[in-house]
Amino acid sequence: MHRRDFIRVLGGGAILAATGCAPAGSDPRAAWNHPGAGEADIRRKALAWAILAPNPHNMQPWIVDLSVPDTITLCIDRTRLLPVTDPFNRQITIGCGAFLELLMMALAAQGQAATAELFPDGEPQPLLDDRPLFRVRIARAATTPDPLFAQVLQRRTNREAYTDTPVTAAAVAALRASAPEGAIGLTVETAPARVALLRDLVYQGGVIEAHTPAAHQESVARTFIGAGDVAAHPWGISLDNGMMTALNAAGVLTKAKMATPGTVAYDQSLKYLKTGADTAQGFVWLVTPDNSRASQILAGRAYVRANLAAAGQGLAMQPWSQGLQEYATQKPLFDRLHRELAPAGGRLQMLSRIGYPKAELRPAPRRGLAAQLKRA
């Protein structure tokens, strides 16, 4: 593989793309095909949709207990956390909020009303532990489906470069209307001057992470390269299109080279981040009054609703939250982002870029429902 060909492929946006295909008979994206089909238990049917929720680094850290009738209890698999970039498990908790929102939507789509009790055994602080994050009880009463649920299979986290088409007023309105009731602020920004500022700031966050060895290595360790590796590990960051598979087989694209400054793989990953930041046509962010676990759950519910609303408008969306992370090298940017985006106070929980995609993407891999059910 010639160096110029490698640069051409990576510069075209493949290095972090969660796209590609798996070997025959081992589809890491099978969970996206007719979720819940054939399930008789309405809880399992709903959970088949909930596991499609966006979550940090696609760790899918969910353990679901169905031992009590008409009840769904969610705990955390603490082997699937991000201790460097998410030292207080804030982002993981946000991902659980997205899971909860899709779960409630999926139950409602079956005509089942339900109630959710957060932290029934107490709020885990300062870190998550074995206590449940929520317990959902099915009320066996009729309810109305949420229109946003129709977009679940179209929802993506799109890390590719976006087109230069401005975000429409209708799309902005749909994003704003998606916010759930509760103490959360959702802002959509498309003014060119502010977008230019935020492009620079989010890229700074990516550069800081790339130059913080422990943080960068945490992402590299959770990256799987090539169709076979992704099929064996249907979680994390997947690089499994045909070219990535070939580059990996040739020894050109490896985890060791991705982790090493000065290699083509490392340098092109930064170029990829810069292209992504520079093609953002707008930004969406979420602010909560405090940083309680309940607020983090609410942020996750609000984020996935905004992501679904974006999908309904043909809009691409990608969280870009390195600067919101709580490790030391991000602190100056963390403070700057809060001054810019939460000047009245509160906790900035999510920051995402938006724009129109250049092409359709395949969804991220999923481990499947069976892997996330608690065993008796």
List keywords for this structure.
376 residues; alpha+beta; NADH Oxidase; four-stranded antiparallel sheet; 10 strands; disordered N terminus
Question: What report would you give on this structure?
Answer:
Helices cover 38% and strands 14% of the residues. It is an alpha+beta fold and 376 residues long. Mean pLDDT is 92; it is low at 1-24. 47% of the residues are buried. The radius of gyration is 20 Å and the shape is globular. The chain folds into 2 domains: 3-21 and 154-355, NADH Oxidase (3-Layer(aba) Sandwich), CATH 3.40.109; 34-152, NADH Oxidase (3-Layer(aba) Sandwich), CATH 3.40.109. A hairpin with a 5-residue loop joins strand 1 (62-65) and strand 2.
Strand order of the main beta sheet, please? Answer: 1-2-4-3
The topology string of helices and strands comes to HHEEHEEHEHHEHEHHHEHEHE
C-alpha Rg, in Å? 20 Å
Average of pLDDT = 92
Q: Regions with pLDDT < 50 over 5+ consecutive residues? A: 1-24
Quickly name the level 1 CATH class of the largest domain: Alpha Beta
* Class by SSE composition: alpha+beta
- Per the CATH scheme, the topology name of the largest domain is NADH Oxidase
Give the total of beta strands.
10
> Shape, please?
globular
Fraction of residues in H or I helices: 25-40%
Main sheet overview: 4 strands, antiparallel
